[in-house]
Amino acid sequence: MVKKAMLFLLCLFLITLAACSKTSQTTSDGRINLDYWVLFGGGDLGYMQDIVSEFNESQDEIYVNIILQDFDDYYTKLVTSVAANRGPDVAVSHAATVPELVNQGLTTPLNDLAGHVDMDFNDFYDNLKDAMEVEGEYHAVPIDSHPFILYVNTDLAEEADLLDENGQPIIEETPEGFKDFFMKARQALPDKTGIAITTGGLDVYRWWWTTYFQMGGTPIFSDDLTDPEITLDQDIAVEAAEYVHSFFGDIIPMHLSDPYETFQSGNAFSLMTGVWGTGIWENADLPFTAVPYPQLFDVEAAQGGSHTLIMPIKEESTDARQQAKMEFIKYVSDSGLKWAEAGHIPSKPEIVESEPFQELPYRSDYSSISPYIVFTDSTIYQSAAETDMTRSLDEIMAGRLTAEEGIKKMVHDLEVTIR
């Protein structure tokens, strides 16, 4: 048994070593060989594979290998591989995670390199550009924004007489009017779920975030990478949580297990989630429309994130390889029209304002909120803070804590996290 166990461990070691081995720096035909790590699943992956293929075919000096990594442990693998100098040449990172990677010394500043390929960070939306900056330097290039939006089943909405002459939902953009829209749907369609969303989890967090900042909420943290102060406005946080919670029961059933399946099967009037659902519903031939989450309060604000490209540090990188990496990064950021087919909003206003993008269904309808996305604060505690906030909101939505109790718990947990 001992010998078998030792043999198993040896095999595991060899498999791991093989998996972590470095790709040859050049291809057999002399092209610079680059490894590109992605975390995409579902329809997103196919669109990104197309972009990489198009890049490889567009020139004969650089070849990019797209490598899919498992989402659940993506960042753990990324940190470990880069620390061992076996990381990818280019990698996808969510904007919220970039400050943590920068603080660990794992990313390459891109200010100077961007100039070498004629890439100007001023070409991106201002809020996106600001989200890429960490302590005065850009460490990532945004390729999209993906806000929290509303999907409505148009067949059901037509049945409930809730569409205008253009086939768009008739929503009065007030807190009461928004809720009334779904109450009318429930009255007309009593056997359908009003909004397909879970009682807890990230979509409720996204909804609360949108509401909080529309109400005039202050940033969660002060502007400090490693030693921030909590600047959350607790009164507004409570008010936002109470508003979201008021939808549960009559409009949203408690503890819905699978919102996506409920919506796709035609058993839900609507669903709220990120824009990545657009490509999914199109491919499923679902009768739907996708619209921005409306401005219900004083401030035009939306929750959203961004997929970015980073250049992990590598000891052996030459100027030629750094240039090649940057050329690929620029190519992907310029391919926003193709990437928009997955549902995302391109990171550059020039692409969004172009006629080809404006002709895309749905995307042009919700792209208007891209400049108003409130991105997360530039702090190393963002990932842990998101977990803290989501857990507290779970307790509120499930009715185990009042909104006031839940927000007090949220602030306490945030204080523990940053100390």
Automatic annotation (TrEMBL):
Report the leader peptide range: 1-18
Q: Would you tell me the protein name for this molecule? A: Multiple sugar transport system substrate-binding protein
What keywords are annotated for this sequence in UniProt? Signal, Sugar transport, Transport
Which Pfam families does the record cross-reference, listed alphabetically?
SBP_bac_8
Superkingdom, according to UniProt? Bacteria
Record's keyword annotation contains Transmembrane helix: no
